[in-house]
């Protein structure tokens, strides 16, 4: 097993499930000290349990926080620095999909909720983690965008708008902070089988969501869903020193779907 993260501190939001959990498991195996943030305490505890099985010597700090609340974001950053003294990698990942409706029927409150978590939460994370990394003179950040952030997706106004915003923040901050030894990139996942994607399919047809999923992936050149661990491998690479000259980039991980149309 690689030791790319020996002695390094990695902070992950949305660490209680899905992509955040997959990334946490991967970097823990490679020696990282972890600070995991999520609104779901039970999810965090499950991630910690799984880490203990595969990386029993890993240090793991669990923090319950709402990333849409700036003070709670400031607090999760300060708690991480207080425990470990630094932040070497940051997977700025927490997000929701929101309800699915055409734009004219998309609730204004729903739009604000999705944007507050997916975009404001990413901005707050960047704001406070970048200040710490600038002091250190180093660091790597990976933001979670989406295929929906580089092309349109029907019936998801809030999600698409927020993820396009994440792409803009990534490119902008990457340009600003490269001079301080900090890389900032985004991943753009396609259909990855996470609890969030499962919930989305159940919105379409609660009784036959698995069949809906089979049809959903047919336009994908690979004809399947991605696996969370496949995203975890990419995140680990982008947070590691091996990607030190990749900056302000948006990397699709979608089986080729975003290039097909």
TrEMBL record:
Gene3D superfamilies in the cross-refs: NAD(P)-binding Rossmann-like Domain
Keyword Oxidoreductase listed: yes
Keywords: NAD, Oxidoreductase
Keyword set includes Ligase: no
Gene Ontology biological process terms from the UniProt entry: bile acid metabolic process
Ketoreductase domain residues: 8-190
InterPro entries: KR_dom, NAD(P)-bd_dom_sf, SDR_fam
Pfam families with a match to the protein in the record: adh_short_C2 (PF13561)
GO terms of molecular function: oxidoreductase activity
Similarity field: Belongs to the short-chain dehydrogenases/reductases (SDR) family.
NCBIfam families: PRK07231.1
Protein name as catalogued: NAD(P)-dependent dehydrogenase (Short-subunit alcohol dehydrogenase family)
């Amino acid at each position: 097993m690689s030791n790319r993260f020996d002695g390094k501190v990695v902070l992950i939001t949305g660490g209680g499930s899905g992509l955040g959990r997959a990334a946490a498991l991967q970097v823990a195996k490679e020696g990282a000290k972890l600070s995991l943030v999520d609104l779901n305490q039970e999810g965090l505890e499950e991630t910690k349990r799984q880490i203990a099985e595969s990386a029993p010597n890993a240090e793991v700090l669990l923090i319950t926080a709402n990333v849409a609340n700036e003070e709670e974001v400031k607090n999760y950053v300060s708690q991480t620095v207080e425990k470990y003294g630094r932040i070497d990698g940051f997977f700025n990942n927490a997000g929701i999909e929101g309800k699915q409706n055409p734009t004219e029927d998309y609730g204004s409150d729903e739009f604000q909720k999705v944007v507050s978590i997916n975009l404001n939460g990413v901005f707050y994370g960047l704001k406070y983690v970048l200040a710490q990394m600038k002091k250190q003179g180093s660091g790597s950040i990976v933001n979670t965008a989406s295929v929906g952030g580089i092309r349109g997706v029907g019936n998801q106004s809030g999600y698409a708008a927020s993820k396009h915003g994440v792409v803009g923040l990534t490119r902008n901050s990457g340009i600003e902070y490269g001079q301080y030894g900090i890389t900032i990139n985004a991943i753009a996942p396609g259909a990855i089988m996470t609890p969030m994607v499962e919930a989305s399919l159940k919105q379409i047809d609660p009784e036959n969501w698995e069949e809906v999923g089979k049809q959903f992936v047919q336009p994908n050149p690979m004809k399947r869903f991605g696996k969370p661990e496949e995203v975890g491998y990419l995140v680990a690479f982008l947070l590691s020193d091996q990607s030190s000259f990749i900056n302000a980039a948006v990397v699709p991980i979608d089986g080729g779907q975003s290039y097909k149309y």
